[in-house]
User: Fold these one by one.
Assistant:
Number 1:
Amino acid sequence: MTTKILAIDTATENCSVALLHGDKIYARSEVAPRDHTKKVLPMVDEVLKEAGLALADLDALAFGRGPGSFTGVRIGIGIAQGLGFGADLPMIGVSTLKAMAQGTYRKHGQQNVACAIDARMSEVYWGRFVRDENGDWSETEPECVIPPQDLSQLLTPSSASWISAGTGWQAYKEQLAELDLEISPGEVLYPEAQDMAFLAQFEWQKGNTVSAEEASPVYLRDKVAWKKLPGRE
């Protein structure tokens, strides 16, 4: 029996939807910072039609749980919950940072990925991942939100070569260049739903799902819920 997982992500400037059906992937993606609410449901309809499936045919619904824009994470989870409630689907939250690691492997074949998303407020959302033999990823240190100049105090020493992913590397180029890591530049700037769908398979196989009402975000910086400045989402 093939696994059928729909994934939705609006946690960053990128809006993406993907449907994994066995070894086939049907995906839509567009960088549209202000139009997530307009784009995401038509994308869902498109991938379902392309695959010849209805929501009720799916096994699970994956969503980008963050970290990312407070508004973007909230939009994605809200839409995913609505679909999950309607079709009575179990849900799987996937880290946006881990999804970028998987996207980097998909594009470059690299298995050590250092991810940094521009979190505004002079901080980055940080996560460093190593690919496991089964295709899943392990964290080198816990995901966090941190001023880039403070990262050196957090890092686990490593002699491995790493590839970068995320918008933080350009936003804080000078500060991150000071890290004691061998880093080569990568092409991945944003998470993609197709990588979330792939990663969600591992959680599905382990039974790590929640109901739609239990689906919850990971903001890392909870204070953005009340300290939201103009232009700083």
Number 2:
Amino acid sequence: MLFRGDFVSSKRLGDLQILHDHLVAVNEQGVITHSEPATSASSRHLLQSDEPKTEIPPGSFLIPTFCDLHLHAPQYLYQGTGLHLPLMEWLNQYAFKAEERIDGDPVLAQRVYERLAERLLESGTGAVVLFGTINENANIILAKAMLSRGLRAYVGKLSMDISSRPTYKEASAQDSLTNAMSFVNNCRALCSDLPETLRTVEPILTPRFVPTCSDKLLTGLGELARDKQLRVQSHLAEAHDQVQWVLQERGVEDIEVFERNGLLTSRTIQAHCTFLPPPSLHKLAHHGTSVAHCPLSNAYFSAEPFRLREALDIGVRVGLGTDIAGGYSIDIMQAMRQAVTVSRMREGQRVIRGDEGRALSIDWKEALFLATKGGAEAMGIQSGIGTFTVSSPFDAQLVRLITVGGTGVGSLDFFDSQTVGGKWVLTEELVEKWWCLGDERNREGIWIQGRKVWPER
């Protein structure tokens, strides 16, 4: 398959690359085999071949799909409601009840998860890290929903042997460990007969967070992660009431609990981390642990913003998360904008205080990197995702800015000519306009591993 047109990507933090009239060739395995200007000799040779061709029309461009590093799949059931309580109360009043309901109703689970997969694709998300529920069967339904729509997904069965809701926990640490390994094996079995390039769903160990996991359970999960080379996800230093609970119950901060149990690794993604001071951020960098930055839910449940600039400066891998339903929007474009907004507020406070040092704000290009290549690196998915380079999987979304008649699509309006010498030219300014104002109306197609997965054929 050949794709000819304009391509946009961010290979490095703060970098934006626009490739005009470019040609990308994708083989049957969904891997990019050619990426050069359409006017090069090798590109002209390919264009003369019988390879199927997709022409990206003027006023449109291809950009990598987004990565969502933190989403509670069962909480999609009540997305957009119940955001008025502190975290620990909110879990009891909303989260645990919804998750228990999903576990007890396979029909409801399938309805919720199939719709979730569709909404993710509509929003341009091609890769997602999912918190599930306790029940293995419900998590297999979740994994199948993601696999059937071609999404890249890490699916996590919750491990929790402690709970403020007595009906929503596992019987013991040993039961929880047995259940976790059972899910890992059965989730992997879903993809075992598929070609390697189509094995897009994987299990991930998921201790919910320290307040719901005994030391015995965390120790066992750390051993599983090490022995089976499994990925891990959890919540770390998210909210004031949660941080204080851990200090009172365990006598140390939760980052120390994770570290001593072998759960801070280069295969770990920790959500939030808003209460981590600089020394703890250095600890994440040392272990290679990634952070899922969820600015919207942090505004609701954290009394502190995440130290994003400081984390990036010391080499912590960071991606963005929606944190449904602690955040109400499933759209990573919103998360990008919110990340910039929060960082600019932090920079304003720095200036008012008269603090010296580097500016704390990030710009839209840096946020775009976090949503694409940076997020893919933080997830640890296939090398090259988030770029249009040779040997990389072709994960892309088609964005349209202007109709054939020259009218802006969706919320976009254009009052000046975007043509040069009679030809429409994609500029950095136009990409920024889409970044600020674009939505699902601008999205016309999604490809993952070279397969068109949205809209459904």
Number 3:
Amino acid sequence: MSDFAATKAMFHLPEGVIYLDGNSLGPLPKAAGARMERAMRDEWGEMLITGWNKAGWMAQPAELGDRIARLIGAEPGHVMLGDTLSIKVYQALAAALEMRPERRVILSDSGNFPSDLYMAEGLIGALDRGYELRVVAPEEVADAINPDVAVTLLTEVDYRTGRMHDMAALTARAHDAGALTIWDLAHSAGAVPVDLAGVDADFAVGCTYKFLNGGPGAPAFIYVAPRYADHARPALSGWLGHAAPFDFEQVYRAGEGLARMRVGTPPVLAMAALDSALDIWDGVDMKALRTRAQTLSERFIASVEDSCPMLELASPRDPEARGSQVSFRFAQGYAAMQACIAQGVIGDFRAPDIMRFGITPLYIDAGDIDRAAAVIARVMQDRLWDDPAYQARSAVT
């Protein structure tokens, strides 16, 4: 049984703030500062370069990958940490395309995060072999999977609305058509139960700064199914993915298993912060988390809809069909969200009209939900958003 009162006490949450944006950036674990200080003072400071061996820095991408593996239903030894999510998308997509050389279609949907689509476009241009990025509506993905498709590139939970794809069904559909699958877990890892091994997924990628609370710029991860780990070709053949990086050979030889998916130098300080965040997850059951998130989400939707008829629910009505976020549509959504933030309720905005709220039971409880709903009601009913101060767009929305 997960103790969510205990996990809430493990986070630094500013006084007077209700934080409903953990789907974009998780809050600071209280232990992260001391863990990073230890990495800086005792490891970097005292060990200097010997920290790569003495402090185990070089092994951390695999070790932290195994800790994440438990949360996404992956086999031990098949999740590797490092680099950014866009880089991991590029790696997975390049490897998958090479495994289906006779096919030329990458299938995605219009609810996918744009960066995934950008990376696909860039890879298509670099390869210059007639590949096509085919983008359909989310509800049309299943019917669009045909023998032309080499790989599906899908985000399980829509970043705007929280709508969820059926990972098991779409993976099976792709395999029946001879296609491979890449699942982006940016809004799934730490939010909903994931069973990569159980659904027979081929590749998956994700970030650690959202629901996993690893901090701004925290490293991404990649999953490669065991059947491909020893021969998936890493398109980005970085030094640390070499079979023997300290032999300094002039020609690249891919490392064994998932080690080949390493690219650049591990971000040691960022990994220290993530390490402390994952300590919190050690006592969390994902099914209990999911149940709690659904309960809180239903409470939030009911309260907001009761007091704010001008807001239109953009997320699926069925709690089983959405991830751990609730989104509403409002024509002046950006200004309304800025007004909410000024009143101490932090969510975010996604163009053109989405007000987005993350429901994260690790540190959000029913009292927070009720107080947040009351603030939103005041902002909307009193038209606090109709203030020129809230109209000016900031660089990050």
